[in-house]
Every structure is written in C-alpha cells, then in structure tokens.
Amino acid sequence: MDFFEAQEQARKRTKWLVLWFVLAVIGVVVAVDALIFFVVGGGEAVGILIPASIATAGVILASSGFKSMQLNGGGEVVAKDLGGRQVMPGSTDFEEKRLLNIVEEMAIASGIPVPKVFLMDNEEGVNAFAAGTEPSNAVIGVTRGCLQRLSREELAGVIAHEFSHILNGDMRLNMRLMGMVFGLLVLSIIGRGMVELLRYQSLSSRRSSNKEGGSIVLALFLVGIGLIVIGSLGVFFGRMIQAAVSRQREFLADASAVQFTRNPDGISGALKKIGGLSIGSKIKSPKASEASHMFFSSGGMFSFGLATHPPLEVRIKKIEQSWDGKFSDSQLKSVAESHAKRGEKSQKGAFDALPGVAMIGALAEMGAESRRSVETGEKIHRALAPKLKAASHDRGESQALIFGLLLAKDEALISSEISFLRESAGEEATALALKWQEEVRGLHSARKIALIDLALPTLRGLSESEYRRFLEITRWLIASDREVNLFEFMIQRVIERHLVSHFERRGFGKIRYTKFSKLLNEANLLVSTIAEIGAGNEAEAVAAYEAGTEGWIGEFEKQGTTSLSDLDEVLNRFDQASPMVKKELLVSCGKAAARDGDLSNREAELLRSIADAIGCPVPPFVDGLEETRN
C-alpha cells in the first residue's frame, strides 16, 4: 500500500469512526435511562428520562467537542498532557542527540518536515507515540525507558513505526479518535474525581463532626460511584472503538518500519525487550488511557479485554518467523558509561538527481514505502556540513539561512533586498543571510530541502512577534523580484504552511475535491509550469506538457502568463483535494519533468515543493553520492 492509498483509506475510516461514536453515545444514554428507570420506578421515571438523556448526551458531545478543539493545537498538546518536555534541537546530551538525529534522518527520507521531539522523563517503560493533526504540527514522543534501554537500531525501529503512522494517515485518525473517546470517558473521569475529593472531605467532616457536612460528602460519594458505574459503559465503548481502529494499523506500521529501516532486527529487538522488562511498556501518566491507541505498545491500561495492540508474541512472529519465543533481558547502562562513538563524518559531494527514466518508473509507485528508506535520510543528513546543521538548529541563524535561500542572485535586485534586511532584521542577520546564500548556492536540491526541514522545529520556537516579522520578511523577499520566481515562491509557501499550522492552531483540513476532473484547469497550469521549467525552448515545453497531460483536454500555458496569486489559488485548491487526486497531479507533473530523460535539481526542487505545499510528503529524488553540480 502506498502513502496515497493509505491516506484515502484512513479518510474513509473516519466516517465509520463517527458512526461508532454515535452508537456508543446512544448506548450510554440508554444505560443511564435504564438505571433511572430501575432506581426511581416506572411511573416517576418517565418525566426524568428525556432531560436525563439530553443531559447525558450533551455532556458527552460537549466534552468531545472541547477536547477536539483543544487537539487542533497539534501533537504538542498531547505530548504535554502526557508529561513530555521538548528535546531542543542542538541538545548536547548523548541520548537526546542520538534521538534527534534518528528523527531528522527519517523526516528527510520521508519528505516531511522534522517533527518536534518530546521526552517523557518520568516514564521508565519502553514506549513511544506520534501525535498531530497533520505533518506540519506532528510530534514524536518517547519515554526515558526508550533512550536508556534500546540500541540505536532498536530505537530507529520504534521511530520508524511512529513515522509510518504519520505517513499512513493513522495519526490524524488517532487524534479524532482521542477527542471522541474523551467524551465517552468523561462521566467516569468526573466520578473518579468526586470519589477522590471525598478522601479529603471525609477527614475534615470527621474533625468538625458536622452532620450536614457528612451528608453532603455521602451524597457526593454516591453520585461519584454512580457516575463511575455509568461511565464504565462509556469506557467500554471507548476501548472497543480504540481496539477496532488500532489493532490492524499496528501490524501495518510494524511492516512499514521494517521496509523503511530495512532492518527487521531493530523493531523486533525493541518488542522483545518490552516483553523481557518487568515494567514493559507501561505508561504511568493519568492521561494515558485517552491516548492508549497512539502508543507503540500497550500502555498497560485495563482494557476490558479489548486491547488496542496485538500481543507482543504475535507482532514479533510476523516480523521474525524463526523467533524462539524468548524475550530479551534489558539492563540499564552503567553509571557514567562512556558515550565515545564514531563521529558522523560529513560526506563531500552532492547527490545525483534520479535519472528521468528511473523517475518515470518510480512515478507508478509514487508514495510507495519502497521509495522511502532511512538510509537515504542518513546519507543526506550526514552529507550536510556541520555548520549548516548547526545553523538550522539556532534560533537566529535558522532565519538567516532561509533569508539566504530567498535572496535574489541578480545584483540589480539584491541591493534593495539587503537594504530591507538591514532595516527589518539587523546588520548581523543580513551578513549571515549573505554568508548562507553563498554556502547553499551550489547545493543539490535534496540538501536544500533537508535544511528547510531541519530548520522548521527551531522556527516553531519563535515568539509570536518574531514569527510575524519572519513571515513579513520572507514575503517581501518574494515580492521584491517583481516577477514570478517560482522556486522562491514555493519555498516560502512551504515554510509558511508549516508555521501557520503551528502558530495559528489550524485544525483538520476539509476535503472538497474528490474527482480530478474538477481541477483540470488548475492541474493544467501546474503541469504547464513544470514543463516550461526544464525546457530549452517552447517546442520542448509543449512536448513535456503533452507527456504529462496525456488524455487531458487542455492547452499549454506559458509561465509568463501566471501570477503568484494564480499559483497560490491553484495550490490551495489541490490542498483541499483527496489523496488520490493529489497523486494524479504529482504523477502528471513528474512525467512532464522527466520527459527529456533527466530530472534537474530545479525540477526536483519544484516537484517536492509542490508536493509539500499540497500536503503530500514525497521522498528525495536521489540516486547516489557522486559529485554533481547544478
């Protein structure tokens, strides 16, 4: 299954999720009515049932709605609820640095922005999760037990499993499910809270020997017990929905992780260590039950026989058929154990663009897991100069790095841009931008896009006022050229898309176009643009356009007739298209770009930028490490 098919299936499963939730709400309401009917009696209960039903349904729906709105803030909300703290880019702690490197390598190989990484310091079990409404606001969370007990290969297997959930659409589905499940759990949560409160109130009531106070405490106790009993049915329905959605997706994520890392021993080794550890994958956070379906392995919560994850033995057997059934022992590292490791050496030379012929063959499986490999991410990540990686992790230099990518190459234009930068960002930022412009000028497209991906977690850490200033500067740099500089525009749009999602707390995008025929005019403009970028003359551009639009009824449009606002509107519409419609567009653009048998850096940059701008992570188009130049 490829990325687009998995996303499409996840979108369709959402409809069933809503249906299950409605049935669960009805089930809880009926249970409340039955309890009232039994306690109060038939005749007197009639007048109570309707308001009680409305109140019960109202509490559940309001709680689900509130939680869903809260979750629109992205995966960071979940991570903090579970007691996580962000691992800052550039951390010098060995274990944290190893974790960040793995996440960055996998993000680059996947073609998605590097997610924020959170560490649950107080969790000793081996577990992890991915959370977010879309890749732009995704986070990866891991327990301290993961860092302390897993080898690099095992940790990579766990992280690859979580990346699969991001790519396959499971993460967004899980966020929706978390909002719904909270509504079903809320009655039980309220009941437990009231009973917990009773522990303190009963002590003070005994000291004061206030009979009236004691009666209130007893009433609260009875109400709390009643809510727990009624809420237990909601908990049951919630667990049932979590299990129905989660179990099969875990098998898919395990298989995808093996394909992604090309190392089955990594993820199977992690699962064996969970089985051999007394604490296993247990999560102690009180919020863990709401997010149990998100974890790498069962969080140890009581599930009424409806586990959200398949048994460890079954998962390991599917990965390693010859497994002897023995779990692995897991010991803490010795105190002050040396972390002297082989340094990551920068690999000189740029990557080869994927040849056009190979590119055409890859288009048929665009989005397939076989095109994604952590090895590609490792190569690109290690090939970046240490000073560039350090700049992407620094609050100030990451902004200057982006400015450097957007600065004009024309001497007549750059002088006004330099003056604006000095006035808006300061002398030091301007000098850095010029420095980074020179550094990245000859880099391959895969590296340029990787730098942007690496900088995004740092840029998400800007203050609100810094974010507004950063956007204003990047927009001005685009407009200052007084012409359609497509690459600069696409890069700026990609950056803005991911930052807007974080700073402006935008939630789920709505799909409005499910048929490619509804967006033919928009597709025509994009394919025409791609065809012209790699062509030497108009005849070649027309031939490339025809290769990309085979079977369409359209006409080649010269890039000179296209404005930035036109492109922005086209990308916005495709951003609201279904996954399979997006795939058809990208395949057409790819065929147009590869028609001449070669895929230049510029074409590769634009293809990946278009894909990212419409919410489709596409792996880097690279095929080696030999020396090449733009």
Question: What would you note in describing this structure?
Answer:
- 64% of the residues lie in helices and 3% in strands.
- The protein has helices at 3-40, 42-71, 75-81, 94-110, 144-149, 152-167, 170-208, 211-261, 264-276, 312-319, 356-363, 374-383, 386-392, 395-406, 411-424, 427-440, 445-459, 464-479, 486-503, 520-533, 538-548, 564-575, 579-593, 601-613; strands at residues 85-86, 116-120, 128-131, 139-143.
- It has a 4-stranded mixed sheet.
- Strand 3 and strand 4 form a beta hairpin.
- Helix 13 runs parallel beside helix 17 (445-459) and helix 19 (486-503) runs parallel beside helix 24 (601-613).
- The protein is globular and about 85 Å long.
- The two termini are 34 Å apart.
